Amino acid sequence: MAPPKQQVLTIRADSDLLEAMKGITNRSEFVRNAILAALENICPFCRGNGILKPNQKKHWDDLFVDHYFTECGICREPRLMCSNRTPEQEEEARQRQQ
User: Fewer CB atoms inside 10 A, N or C side of the chain?
Assistant: First the structure.
């Protein structure tokens, strides 16, 4: 079986970005890895665009029937919590995060 065909992706870069990337020996690999890392961290609901479509909003609202946001006691970032968890389950989840 033939390996998957690669395609060329072109991006625009201002002079500051080009200067910052000056010492990177393999820019293509660096950009590929940066894009893959960013894609691993996109919002699963909006898929990174920051806006929910009407049907996505309905699903989000359904989720919040028994979920809520709180601040993480460790990193201070917003954390999505399940209303149905017992305090013991919450403590176990906190311990796994550390």
Answer: N
Length of the chain: 98
Instruction: Return phi, psi of residue 71, to 5°.
Output: -95, 130
Domain ranges across the chain: 15-97
Cβ proximity of 69 and 78 under 8 Å = yes
Cα dihedral 70→74→75→76 (10° resolution): 40
Residue 81 in tokens: 């919590």
Task: Decide: 81 and 69 in contact? Cβ < 8 Å.
Answer: yes
CA distance 91 to 81: 12
Average model confidence (pLDDT) across the chain:
86
Strands 78-82 and 67-71: antiparallel
* Residue range 2-40, pLDDT digits in tens: 777 888 889 899 999 999 999 999 999 999 899 888 888
